[in-house]
Amino acid sequence: MKWTAAQVPDLSGRTVVVTGANSGLGLATTRTLAQYGARVVMAVRSLNRGHEAAARIHDEHPRARLEVRDLDLADLESVRGFATALHVDGVSVDVLINNAGVMAPPHLLSPQGFESQFAAGHLGHFALTGLLLETLSASRDPRVVTVSSMMHRGGRIHFDDLNGTRHYAPREYYQQAKFAQTVFALELHRRLGAAGSQVRSLLAHPGYTATNLATTGPRGLPRLAGRIGNRLLAQNVTMGVLPQLYASTAPDARSGQFYGPDGLREMRGYPTLVKPDPAAEDPTAAQRLWELSENLTGIRYNLSAPA
Predict the structure, then answer these.
(1) Are 187 and 138 spatial neighbours (Cβ–Cβ below 8 Å)?
(2) How many CB atoms lie within 10 A of CB 275?
(3) Angle at which helices 242-249 and 24-35 pack, to 10 degrees?
(4) Where are the domains of the chain?
(5) What's the rounded Cα separation, in Å, for the pair 167 and 151?
(6) Of 199, 195, 184, 209, whose CA–CA distance to 263 is shortest?
(7) Beta strands of 159-299 (E only): which ranges?
(8) How far is residue 150's CA from residue 265's CA, in Å, rounded to a whole number?
(9) What is the reported pLDDT for 217?
(10) How many CB atoms lie within 10 A of CB 267?
(11) Could you point out which of 153, 244, 276, 304 has its C-alpha 20 to 30 Å from the C-alpha of 55?
């Protein structure tokens, strides 16, 4: 049986944080979660666009429980402020969906001086997850779902040129960010398991899905190629969002697993279990990336094995 959004269980009483919730996969995720009763915190870089997106969902689902909050994942100060505000307001988080990202822009640096794709895609989510881990650990069936990409395959961490100061290729550094997210989610699963935590760390990717990611970040010919590909080759967002919805809600979705489309080359189709690039499962590389991420963000995860 092919899993669809119609199989999402009742989510009443659950609170989900979705990064990049105002467009594309994030918006589709938010719409479905709200439809099935979840309270969704829409973490967005533009409050105006976030409120516009929330209004569209309310038009379709008047009972939707939505909160729009400001979050720029490329800015670690914004990440800290977002997490602090949730704690101060007493928001208990059951699921964190690390969805937001940017794709193949010109060479840009974050406020802290990190390459923008790595900053927003990996470092921001690493920091956010660490800052929300305590509230996640106290909730019922807590999950962290990290949205990767087919393009993590063949990626690597440029430890000797992390920010692309010597050589920058937009696609190559997009792969770095997605590879880092994959390594992070798998290492988080290992560390949570060693600590006896009930928090699940899961991965998902949407295959080739028509979103604005491929048409807003790239410039020139890559942007044109993205528009053509979206029109001729990509599946629609309603299908592309299914793997992350499955990872976020399905009772049998297990920690450490990676979900993607079941079609040819994982480009389209219904959710199924897929395999990461073998290099992303290397525990030595994961340890190195984890320590680097802690040093760059200043975030230390509070994980300890049970007595």
Answers:
(1) no
(2) 12
(3) 40
(4) 10-208+237-297
(5) 19
(6) 209
(7) 200-204, 258-261, 271-274
(8) 9
(9) 47
(10) 16
(11) 244
Phi-psi region of 37 (alpha: psi -120 to 50; beta: other; left: phi over 0): left
Active-site amino acid positions: 174
**DSSP string across 82-123:** HHHHHHHTT---SEEEE-----S-SS-B-TTS-BHHHIIIII
Residue 189: closest CA among 48, 303, 296? 303
Amino acid at residue number 169: A
* Six-digit token string for 20: 């990049």
Q: How far is CA 258 from the centre of its chain?
A: 13
Residue with tokens 């020139």: 220
Taking Cα atoms as reference points, which of 162, 154, 165, 170 lies closest to residue 104? 170
DSSP code, position 109: B
E-assigned strand segments in 205-289: 258-261, 271-274
* Distance of alpha carbon 14 from alpha carbon 79, whole angstroms: 22
Domain 10-208+237-297: assigned CATH number: 3.40.50.720
Q: What angle do CA 13, 95, 123 make, to 5 degrees?
A: 155
Strand ranges, E, within the chain: 15-19, 39-44, 65-70, 95-98, 143-147, 200-204, 258-261, 271-274
Q: How do the pLDDT tens digits run along the chain, 307 residues long?
A: 799 999 999 999 999 999 999 999 999 999 999 999 999 999 999 999 999 999 999 999 999 999 999 999 999 999 999 999 999 999 999 999 999 999 999 999 999 999 999 999 999 999 999 999 999 999 999 999 999 999 999 999 999 999 999 999 999 999 999 999 999 999 999 999 999 999 999 999 999 998 766 545 455 544 434 444 445 467 999 999 999 999 999 999 999 999 999 999 999 999 999 999 999 999 999 999 999 999 999 999 988 655 4
Sorted by sequence, the CB contacts under 8 Å of residue 1 that are 6+ apart come out as none
Alpha-carbon distance of 257 to 202, in angstroms, equals 5
